[in-house]
């Protein structure tokens, strides 16, 4: 174990700055080579400092899931934000209107009813930028890439308070892929969904400037297809065991880990101070089946965090291990996005030394 880990109170969220920087450089290099813009999703890290790292590296703006996340980022000086969520409640729209005074805000739209509500709310002020979200197979939000997308585009085009300038999708079902071939197929369908939707809209006389795809497992495939103009990976800044299981990343690329301590050791089990309120219960977003247990213990691949209660992680012992009370273990989370949201701060370290502590600024901003 690194000596500096022995002085850290646990459980703690550790961020390896060298690995994160390498991941960011890799994303930016791909975007530059593919000739696409980078608008990373911040739901993974929820950090103003990490957002600035991405912008300084070459990102043109950021993506968020919630208005609350957008408010945090605007307060942090970030001025180009896509809210990739179909916002329609008046209380949220009032907050979006305030954000427009300080930043360029774009809102996802996936129905004529929502578009009409947005128009009514913004008709006496600055027009609102909107992007249509299309469904590329995740079957969550989004219109279908057929006449449905054209009907919505025509409807928006007739609403003077809205400015339609983008179509986007998110192939989140790639997280459930079982082979590289399946990921490639999903990625191609992701890009095709956007490009088909754009073509249909432009045949109807509606120009679409931005053609955006997301999803860490697919962005290097879909983002390389001619006609796509933007990528929105989120998890790729950290990576995690889901990405490792998919073959998208290696364990050595995982920049985010959880440090935990042994709090009890019995003949048949060991207990750590990292339970569901630390590691989360997510063993695989959208059905990924490559995951064993609740995180990977570095240096002890034979140990499995088999079950979690709120504050306890239980590891069955089938043979003796060289871990005793108060010893530390380092865990790569299954799903970095939900784990980061459980902590107040990242302990940032570099070359075996803690160099800073960064806030998880938008933690808990669910509204």
Automatic annotation (TrEMBL):
Which terms under GO biological process does the entry name? D-serine catabolic process
Lyase listed as a keyword: yes
Residues in coiled coil: none
Q: Cite the SMART domains for this sequence.
A: D-ser_dehydrat
Q: What is this protein called?
A: D-serine deaminase-like pyridoxal phosphate-dependent protein
The answer to keyword Nucleus applying to this record is no
Q: Which residues form the D-serine dehydratase-like domain?
A: 255-350
**From what organism does this protein derive?**
Pseudogracilibacillus auburnensis
Q: By its UniProt entry, which InterPro entries does this protein fall under?
A: Ala_racemase_N, D-amino_acid_metab_enzyme, D-ser_dehydrat-like_dom, D-ser_dehydrat-like_sf, PLP-binding_barrel
Can you tell me where the transmembrane regions are? none
The opening ranks of the lineage are: Bacteria, Bacillati, Bacillota, Bacilli, Bacillales
Q: Specify the domain of life of the species encoding this protein.
A: Bacteria
The family annotation for this protein states: Belongs to the DSD1 family.
Molecular function terms, GO-annotated: D-serine ammonia-lyase activity
Spell out the Pfam families in the cross-references: Ala_racemase_N (PF01168), D-ser_dehydrat (PF14031)
Keywords associated with the record: Lyase
